[in-house]
Amino acid sequence: MLAGVGRSTIELIKQFIDINDPDVDFSISTSGIKGLFFDYYSWPLKHYTFPFYLHESTNFSAKLETFIRKNFIKPDLFHITNNFDTTYPNEKFVVTIHDMILYDKDPSSRETFKNIATKSKAIVTCSSFSKNDIIAKLHVPEEKISVIPWGINKSIFFKRDEKQIQNICGKYKIETPYFFSCSCGDKRKNIDIAIEAFSLVLKDYPNATFVISWGNCPAAIQEKFQNEIKANRLKIIQGVSNDDLAALYSGALATYFISSAEGFGFPMIESFACGTPCVSCYNTSLMELGQNHAYFVPERNIEETKKSMIHFLDNKFNDKNGLIEYAQKFDWKETAQKYIDFYKNNL
């Protein structure tokens, strides 16, 4: 039984259904009002929805969820897919801890992290960096943690042809050459640094564009860079579909993903899969993920970020095929099979 249906979990479930292992029977548990109206993609799986969230729930609602799971659903193994959830005494469960970002950011979460990590039968995470971070902060034995990297959806994230790139530029009124960024919402993503660097680049490269997919760009950013926005040099777009996202990656000079902390980092691998280099930072899992394929800059360093932009404006990137080949190792079917093996080992 899997709890929570986030992006990575959706991809996993699709592959579980495809693999159709005869020894494993999956069901899904979700919390929150949205779960009541979610169609579960017509998946051939049982699903259970509890119309409340853990962080909003009363002691009664938390007890109700675990009571139903213990006495009516009765899974052989409960998989908490996003750091923590409610459990009952002696419940057999495993947990995916993506990273320790919340643990570092919110001291009130630390006891919950420790309890779940201690009580779980096993832990799975998506990078060796996260594994080592979990060991250091939660004092979990190394052998209790498995590392299974995420994959990418190869039917979406692949190099788009010139016609598709021209179409996407026309749709969003993007002038080339352009840089691209997405996954901007959290402060740790440091998109403000990338924009600051780009505003300096414009002084010598006035025809460059920076395209940012950002659903809720703060008014302060829009006000500060209003001249760049009015000149169509800074392009903030919303409501980008996955197909559009792949085309935007494909047409960019480089993707900017200069985060301060990541457990994995989908934008980097998605960009690689579309044949576009990624500029990132020397920290957390990003060096492990990017290896010698990414262009690294120091964290929150405007000058070095500016230099990286100038580098890509002045030099044609000639190893698109190398990036695409590297990205192919991140395969959801392989990830799902490793998860199935992980479940079997912990039943």
Order of helices and strands: EHEHEHEEHHEHEHEHEHHEHEHEHEHHH
Number of helices: 16
Biggest β-sheet strands, sense, barrel: 7 strands, parallel
Instruction: Strand order, main sheet: write it out.
Output: 3-2-1-4-5-6-7
CATH architecture of the largest domain: 3-Layer(aba) Sandwich
In percent, how helical is the residue content?
Answer: 40-55%
Q: Helix- and strand-based class?
A: alpha/beta
Write the layout of secondary structure elements.
Blueprint: E1 2-3, H1 7-19, E2 27-31, H2 34-37, E3 46-50, H3 59-73, E4 78-80, E5 93-96, H4 101-105, H5 110-119, E6 122-125, H6 128-138, E7 145-147, H7 162-172, E8 178-181, H8 191-201, E9 209-213, H9 219-224, H10 226-230, E10 234-237, H11 242-251, E11 255-256, H12 266-273, E12 278-281, H13 286-290, E13 295-297, H14 302-314, H15 320-327, H16 332-346
Parallel strand pairs: 1-2, 1-4, 2-3, 4-5, 5-6, 6-7, 8-9, 9-10, 11-12, 12-13
How would you summarize this macromolecular structure in one to three sentences?
This protein is α/β, with parallel strands linked by helices. The protein has 16 helices and 13 strands.
What features would you describe in this structure?
By secondary structure, the chain is an alpha/beta fold. It has 2 domains: 2-151 and 331-346, 3-Layer(aba) Sandwich (Rossmann fold); 162-327, Rossmann fold. The chain contains 16 helices and 13 strands. A 7-stranded parallel β-sheet has the order 3-2-1-4-5-6-7, with helices on both faces. It has a 3-stranded parallel β-sheet with strand order 8-9-10, with helices on both faces. Helix 8 (191-201) packs across helix 14. The longest helix is centred in the first third of the chain and has 15 residues, at 59-73. The radius of gyration is 22 Å and the shape is elongated. The model has no long low-confidence stretch (mean pLDDT 92).
